[in-house]
Amino acid sequence: MHENGLKIKDFVKVFNLEVLNQGSDFETMLLTIKDVNRPGLQFHDFYDYFEPRRLQVIGKAEVTYLEGLTPTQRRKCFDDLFHYDIPALVIARGLDCFEECMESAREHGRTLLRTSEVTVDFTSHVIEHMNRILAPCITRHGVLLEIYGEGVMITGDSGVGKSEAAIELIMRGHRLVADDAVELRRVSNQLIGTAPEIIRHYIELRGIGVIDLRQLFGMRAIKVETQLDLVVHFEPWDQSKFYDRLGIEDHYIEMLDVNVPIVTIPVRPGRSLASIVEVAAMNNRHRKFGYNAAQELVRRVDMHADAGSGKT
Fold first, then answer.
1. N or C: which end of the chain has fewer CB within 10 A?
2. In this structure, are residues 58 and 90 in contact, taking their beta carbons and an 8 Å threshold?
């Protein structure tokens, strides 16, 4: 992966593509657009609206059309396409490559690839993958875990107890995604969190040092990525500060233009932070399904008060 896109040579590895011809820019060319193009209109000589930076893909429909042309006409179709600085042309379904296509690709120094996937499946997979690669990304300090299916990021000042709570949660069967640095990407109005590859699966515990969770607890203790559903912020207990005891109002934090629910947990000796985070995750899931315990309690209190007033 590259900060501005995905290199064609890495793209080939990801999708296990056959390289029919390496273009002159095979090592440096980047895919920088999420969408792909099927050049049917271009083979009809329509280039008034054409984005050459898109990956070009031909399938059964385009090949069937090209088979009906003369070799000279086919050569012109590919010459016109390869005249543009396209990242690559991919032939889907494992279809045979026209001689005119190979000759033109070599002459213009363009990359020519082939996949065995059906055209629609391949283009869908490419768009989905590129959406993730090119998604807006930020890095936040915290610990990201999956708890009861909810993606929970624990934040707070250094030394407040984030990693200690995380290790207890992992020992209870939950899974770590990232410790210390959390990479967040906005994909389809959702935030997807993962760890930088260099520190993936590692967690730091003061007094012990860095440990490899995959080696100590096995694959059950880790997960590569998760959707971010809740932020739990740890802060030292402040006697002068008012902490929400009912939870009627929802609070949010904005990241990459996405509002994520956030709860603030005051930290002091004797509090089981892991248990509180577990309950926060379960409660957040209930709220997503429309149940708010605080609002239900208020409703019951109001009903009781109304009933009492009626009796008098």
1. C
2. yes
Q: What backbone torsions phi and psi does residue 266 show, to the nearest 5 degrees?
A: -75, 135
CA–CA separation, 218 and 148 (whole Å) = 18
Q: Angle, nearest 10°, between helix axes 162-171 and 273-288? A: 80
Task: Supply 20's token pair.
Answer: 């029919």
Q: DSSP of the chain, one letter per residue?
A: -BTTBEEHHHHHHHTT-EEEE--TTTTT-EE--S-EE-TTTGGGT--SS--TTSEEEE-HHHHHHHHTS-HHHHHHHHHHHHTS--S-EEE-TTPPPPHHHHHHHHHHT--EEE-SS-HHHHHHHHHHHHHHHTS-EEEEEEEEEEETTEEEEEE-STTSSHHHHHHHHHHTT-EEEEEEEEEEEEETTEEEEE--GGGTTEEEETTTEEEEHHHHH-GGGB-SEEE--EEEEEEE--TTS---SS--S--EEEETTEEEEEEEEEE-TT--HHHHHHHHHHHHHHHHTT--HHHHHHHHHHHHHHHHHHH-
Question: Which candidate, 213, 224, 231, places its Cα nearest to that of 281?
Answer: 231
Angle at which helix 99-108 crosses helix 71-82, to 10 degrees, equals 30
* 85-113 pLDDT per residue, tens: 999 999 999 999 999 999 999 999 999 99
- The structure tokens 């059309």 sit at 65
pTM of the model: 0.73
Smallest CA-to-CA distance from 101 within 36, 34, 56 is with 56
Q: Which of 31-40, 146-155, 280-289 has the lowest mean pLDDT?
A: 280-289
Annotated active-site positions, please? 141, 162, 180, 245
Mean per-residue pLDDT for 187-197? 91
Please tell me the predicted confidence (pLDDT) of residue 300.
Answer: 73
Return the residue matching tokens 């009809």. Answer: 44
pLDDT at 1 over 60: no
